[in-house]
Amino acid sequence: MFRTLAFLLFLAPSVVAAQCGGSFAGFVKSLAAESRQRGYDANTVAQFFAGVVQDSKVLRADRAQGVFQKPFIEFSRRLISNQRIQKGRNLARQYDSTFDLIERTYGVSRGVLLAFWAFETDYGTFQGDFNTRNALVTLAHDCRRPDLFRPQIFAALELYTRGQFDPARTTGAWAGEIGMVQMLPGDILENGVDADGDGRVRLKTSAPDALVSGAKMLNHLGWRAGEPWVQEVTVPQNMDWSLSGLNTTLPASQWAKMGVAPRSGRLANLPASLILPQGHKGPAFLAYPNFRVYFEWNQSFTYVMTAAYFATRLEGAAVYNAGKPDAGLSAQQMKQLQRKLQARGYNVGKVDGILGARTRDAVQAEQKRLGLPADAWPTAALLGRL
């Protein structure tokens, strides 16, 4: 799911991270007033907000993303199946001309789009049944991330004026994304493409429109044409594990001098980071500059790593070598670890039981201080030492 703020650029120069909370009816009135201030006709605004309701199911979904607590191996095995791989390859053949257009125009490899298509909507078979307008207004009213969702309401209003959005009938994911690759209204305004030539951008029913729009979005976010994104590697056991993680970027040639070798093919002549999703005993990857663009699509490291790896599988890469990683922590243990790290002065963000970037950084720092392999993978041994 797209989680970028790039779409804010099209908005009028009003305060984006504005009001939230209070009575829902009052909040809707303030949105309508701001819409009129932006120049929208009063009747259009009234029609757009007519019947809007707060959706409690959206709030429950927002607070129940426990799937991202799962480690990479478990998460990737859950999402990647032979059936999904085969269907993806069949669709690659079916839409070969569309993917050729994408690769010529935007330089995004077909496996990348196929992986997002698979994970977001199971290749378009389930695109979500939440009313999009209600979801956006509900999430903007909630004070967790109003800076993300409030601008999307005005983007949806703009789509409505163009005949591309029905406030009563347009549906999608709980977080307001629409279509086969799940794009927010602002992203559609900025990157929507009529790839099938029917005069409309139809991301829910036209695979070419959805795929080309997704590719344009990635290109806009900084995707480097024709370059790889992630590659499985083997790593020597005498490696300095503190060099792993996205905070360290070295030329691939320097990694090679340290004994990092591609499992197949050659290392790209690019800067890269060594990624150990489950520590030095588990699978290992080099992440190239395009890998960082994935985080503009989704902020979850587990999701990003799985989507990036799945894209390589769709293009013929072997199943990764899972190794024998040390057992990870339960959600409760992870929360305990986060509290211990907070007590030691680390900013790990919310204590949520999820191994996010800031928790990984803190874990790696403590491992280094304690003389443990500094691979950023938290274990019971580390928890005990803390």
Automatic annotation (TrEMBL):
Annotated Gene3D superfamilies: 1.10.530.10, Bacterial muramidase, PGBD-like superfamily/PGBD
Record InterPro entries: Lysozyme-like_dom_sf (IPR023346), MltB-like (IPR043426), MltB_2 (IPR011970), Peptidoglycan-bd-like (IPR002477), PGBD-like_sf (IPR036365), PGBDSf (IPR036366), SLT_2 (IPR031304)
UniProt GO molecular function: peptidoglycan lytic transglycosylase activity
Gene Ontology biological process terms, A to Z: peptidoglycan catabolic process
Keywords annotated in UniProt: Signal
Domain of life: Bacteria
All copies of domain Transglycosylase SLT, residue ranges: 24-311
Cleaved signal peptide residues: 1-17
Pfam families hit by this protein: PG_binding_1, SLT_2
Domain Peptidoglycan binding-like: residue ranges: 331-384
Name of this protein: Lytic murein transglycosylase
Species whose genome carries this gene: Aliishimia ponticola
Lineage of producing organism: Bacteria, Pseudomonadati, Pseudomonadota, Alphaproteobacteria, Rhodobacterales
